Amino acid sequence: MILLLFLTIGILHTVEGTEPAVEISYEEVAARPYTETLYSITCSVTHMPVNSNLWLSMISSAGGYVENFTDESNGGFWFTVRYDSESSLTVVFNAFVPHYEGQYTCMVRENTDDNPLEWSSKSVYLKYTTMPEIQDLIYDDAYTFNYDHRLLFLNDGSALQLQCVASGVPEPKVEWKKKGNDNYVIEGPLLDVPSVTKADSGFYFCEAHNGIGDPVKSTELEVKVLDFFPPKMRYTSEPVITITEDLNRYWGNEMGTKMEILVNGLPPPTVTWWKETEIGRQRIMRESTSTHRFLIYDGFFSYPGTETDHRLIIEAPNQFRLGTYVAKAENSLGVAELNFTINAAETTYTIQR
Q: Which range marks the domain in which residue 59 is found?
């Protein structure tokens, strides 16, 4: 654990002769990242009067009330009071919350009933401060994002907007930087690129600093700018399916006929299934009630550059399902098709096409 230590010593005033001289000093300690600045305050007295009391007094900036720190104070978790001697007092804050921001003074008073003399140190003002912390990186939900690799996919020419959410007291200054490019510095929490190109691909991170402790960095976010391309398709099952079993037994069992393809493209293609008939091509829709129903499966589009699985399944097919089927993939750049043929060997059924 690295401690950042800043020491400022304020000397009050020294009274000539045997008059007590009261001094106050403090240390600023950032105990660990992302925490408030902690303080250790010491009161010390030269020529401490006999039968006198020493304490630390605070006037809070939150409401102006006064709090005195003595050996009878109960700070609990927040602070501890330690008398090193009758003329030396140390208050250590374990958590310096906004409540404790204010003006601090060391006090000495004679413990007598009649007109007790009182001496005080110079006052110091202690501020509530915290190290910066990056809480979140915000991006448009419409972006394609791979959470496992913190990878953001963008199309060439699209807009990139990333928001860095940082906190700290005082408010931290935020900058965006790009790994491997020391000259790339964008001031402010918003990274805004109206139209990205391939050159904008890379690893980005934001950095926050407010003068308290070291600057902090976010995790890196990789941006990949991709080119559009028309659909590409390939078979993952046989394009020609020939039924060679006894047809009566085949049609009556629960077997299904599967047609499977892999599709790639950017923007992600839409895949539809069709059947060639005597009256033209007819689109196949999902069926949930038919005994010989069609089932259509569309794989999950994870991120560009990977193929997506698509299937057409005919449950318990009959002779009327024989014929030519077409898988069609299309996006804004083009259309691609693959054909499947289902036929039966040595059947006496009339095949409808």
A: 4-128
